[in-house]
Design goal:
The protein is built from 3 helices and 4 strands. It has 81 residues and is an alpha+beta fold. The chain has one domain. A 4-stranded mixed β-sheet has the order 2-1-3-4, covered by helices on one side. The longest helix is centred in the C-terminal third of the chain and has 18 residues. Pfam families: DUF1450 (PF07293). This is DUF1450 domain-containing protein. InterPro entries: DUF1450 (IPR009910).
Length: 81
Amino acid sequence: MGIVVVEICDGNLIHTIDLEGIIESKYPEVAVITNDCLSFCGLCALKPYALVNGKRIFAKNIEQCLDKIEKAIEEELAVYQ
């Protein structure tokens, strides 16, 4: 388990990319967890999103969301540096 946890819903648009592979290879301190549901009903259908250490990160498209997720991860990791 990493010091930063990224949670994604398996019904969300962000699940269409290999987020676990992308994030965990770039940031070994991060664990990506896929859940059946994160209880943000409606958001799954509207925008790609993830939770980074419990903070909701979302964007208009997958690429922007991935960029925001990486930025949030770097901010979380900076606390431990």
